[in-house]
Design goal:
Helix content is about 45%, strand content about 15%. The chain is of the alpha/beta class and about 525 residues long. Strands 5-4-3-6-7-8-9 form a seven-stranded parallel β-sheet, sandwiched between helices. Strands 12-11-10-13-14-15 form a six-stranded parallel β-sheet, covered by helices on one side. Strand 8, helix 10 and strand 9 form a beta-alpha-beta unit. The longest helix has about 30 residues.
């Protein structure tokens, strides 16, 4: 049986690959066995046996390769990852099949570790709802560790077994909770760059160590379909919490064939969704693929910092210091979503100079424009030209979007769901959408844009006019009406509720309550359909 190795000095999780048997298992499970054999044979025939490297060697080289900060979040979405992987041809397809079988049998007999929690985000970094649940769990971990240390120190002092000031050491098995985050190679190779706390353990996505972590964790916490992307088998004793990554979002959920197949399959694997509104429950259970999954009405953990003033003050100091923004300046964030044709950015370009001037005329003071390109557009040269203007900052490389939202004084987007997190702050929000008709046709909305509290502009002139006409009182009234209509139940303590449930062992109780609500909802819908047919 393969065991995880927790390196206390680096906080990295790996396995021991010294044995031949383990190396074979790794090649099989990680899905490169046939391609590795073909490469080695080709090199041997060419008389280059001295150049033959193990996969472990190649991974190590890739991990220490210099990566620009903006690349941390430029990983392709789930569907594109699959297409890229399939690009290897027949051997890649065969390796996928072999990997699926190998992972199934390797993890079949692995025991579930009760205090192990694995977090995974589609961004492959320490962010989103998963981060804020982990942060709350860290507080519990620190409290329990401090209590145990104090008790152990007391006993040792009483028994005079150690010096009075000797530090109490613990192994990972003795920790109250093992908090493991699945990340990409860049973060795994240099965690110090990415503001990750010392008590968060990192494991590299796609590695056999990540599969074993998933196969043995009591809890999976996921903001997409990451935990099952490689067809990882979920055991009955394991709990799969899905937080998703939108909030009152307007865009319809969809993807390629592989994504849709996994989404449908996850209907039986996800234990519960963590939601923030009756609207979101309706999307998941009635319009998307998860008709059987109960929803825990906690709110979104990532939004807690938007509803607590003390966090906003701390984040303002952090973000302003990071970008060297003058303390007296105000900030407006422009962060559009991507288009299917990622090379064409004409629909998301904006006149930042006019925007800056419009904000200063309307709201007074000095303003800084922060532009955050979507991860699929961040290396587009034409788009990045927008950043080359006075008073404009490229905020694409900032690790956590929620910290930016907690700080900025106003927000502008097209169809990105972050604006529906930002609306909770009550600060001015605007829609700048130059291709509404095309986007509706290609993606579709759950409700019309004009049903939101935000004014809508399709060009720079209209945006400037909307900013000039902004009415704070009317906007506040529209925000409250919108949140009420969507049944939003955010209270600013979502992460605490999730952590309480995990620590108190009350998940089954909470799930049963949510399942009862879902059952009553289905009964009501059935009755409404019966009455409609009888008319």
């Amino acid at each position: 049986m393969i065991d995880l190795i927790f390196d206390a000095e680096t906080q990295l999780v790996s396995i021991d690959k010294s044995s031949f048997f383990t190396k074979v298992q790794t090649a099989l499970a990680e899905g490169y066995f046939l391609r590795k054999r073909r490469r080695d044979i080709r090199r041997a025939k060419a008389g280059m046996s001295h150049l033959m490297k193990t996969e472990e060697d190649e991974l190590e080289e890739a991990e220490i390769k210099e990566v620009q900060p903006a690349e941390v979040q430029t990983a392709p979405d789930e569907g594109e990852k699959e297409k890229h992987h399939q690009g290897g041809g027949l051997l890649a397809v065969l390796d996928d099949g072999i990997g699926y079988i190998a992972r199934f049998f390797i993890m079949l007999r692995l025991p579930v570790v009760e205090n192990r929690i694995v977090f995974s985000t589609f961004q492959n970094v320490y962010t989103c709802n998963c981060r804020y649940i982990a942060e709350e769990m860290r507080k519990r971990l620190e409290q329990e560790v401090a209590a145990k240390d104090a008790e152990a120190e007391k006993q040792k002092n009483e028994q005079a077994l150690v010096e009075e000031n000797e530090k109490v050491k613990r192994t990972i098995e003795e920790e109250p909770y093992q908090l493991i985050f699945i990340v990409n190679r860049a973060v795994y190779a240099d965690k110090d760059k990415y503001d990750i706390p010392e008590d968060i353990w990192l494991v590299q996505r796609g590695s056999i160590a990540s599969f074993i972590a998933l196969g043995t964790a009591k809890y999976w916490v996921d903001n997409a379909l990451n935990c099952i992307w490689k067809n990882i088998r979920k055991k009955k004793r394991q709990i799969y919490l899905n937080t998703w990554h939108g909030s009152l979002g307007i865009k319809r959920l969809n993807g390629d064939k592989h994504w849709v197949r996994l989404a449908k399959k996850s209907n039986r694997k996800i234990s519960a969704f963590i939601t923030n509104s009756t609207f979101e429950e309706e999307v998941f259970q009635d319009f998307a693929f998860w008709s059987r999954v109960p929803c825990l009405q906690f709110g979104h953990p990532r939004n807690d910092i938007l509803l607590n003033e003390k966090y906003s003050i701390a984040m303002r100091e952090k973000v302003y210091g990071y970008y060297r923004i003058p303390e007296h300046a105000k900030t407006v964030l422009y962060a559009p979503t991507f288009r299917d044709n990622k090379s064409d950015v004409s629909a998301i370009r904006i006149d930042c100079v006019r925007l800056k001037k419009a904000m200063e005329i309307k709201f007074g003071g000095e303003w800084t424009v922060m532009v955050r390109a979507h991860m699929h557009n961040r290396h587009n040269v034409a788009l990045r030209q927008m950043f080359n203007a006075p008073g404009v900052i490229d905020a694409s490389d900032y690790n956590d979007m929620q910290e930016l939202l907690a700080v900025v004084d106003a927000g502008i987007t097209d169809y990105s769901s972050w604006i529906f997190d930002f609306v909770l702050t009550g600060r001015p929000g605007f829609i700048y959408a130059r291709d509404i008709d095309q986007y509706i046709h290609s993606r579709g909305f759950y409700y019309d844009l004009d049903k939101t509290p935000f004014s809508i502009a399709s060009n720079d002139d209209e945006l400037v006019a909307n900013i000039a006409a902004f009415d704070e009182t009317e906007y506040a009234k529209n925000v409250q009406a919108f949140l009420k209509e969507k049944g939003c139940y955010e209270q600013g303590n979502a992460a605490k509720q999730v952590a309480d449930m995990i620590c108190d062992g009350t998940f089954e109780q909470k799930r049963a309550e949510a399942a009862a609500r879902l059952k009553a909802k289905r009964k009501k819908q059935k009755e409404e359909r019966r009455q409609k047919r009888s008319r």
